[in-house]
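Hi R.,

Here's the chain you asked about this morning:
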Amino acid sequence: QVQLVESGGGLVQAGVSLRLSCAASGSIFRFNGMGWYRRAPGKEREWVSCINTPGSTYYAGSVQGRFTISRDNAKNTVYLQMNSLKPEDTAVYYCAKKTGGSSSYCGSWAPIDFGSWGQGTQVTVSS
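And here is the predicted structure, written out as tokens:
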């Protein structure tokens, strides 16, 4: 059974950085495509970023240039480095593991393609 555990969220001021981590267990991590989503209060779930098994990364326009996704296969962990945080980044952030093949362009993956989700970690950015 796949388990994903996010950590690293918190309450910060605008302009600072946070790094989220997502530790995975129960699968061969290096074969897994991974993604980050977020849900802000009163809003729909929003895709943030993804990384496929070759290591190609893609970002939503709202975070492009500020956020960086990376993975450490030796640690079974995917990270989301978030710089220059803005109040509009306030949300619960979720990591997710893609089901099936994960070498394709991950920007085309939909939420339904992710079979496992973490419990989420809260990020609150004050102005």
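One quick note: Residues 96 and 117 are 4 Å apart (CA to CA).

Cheers,
M.
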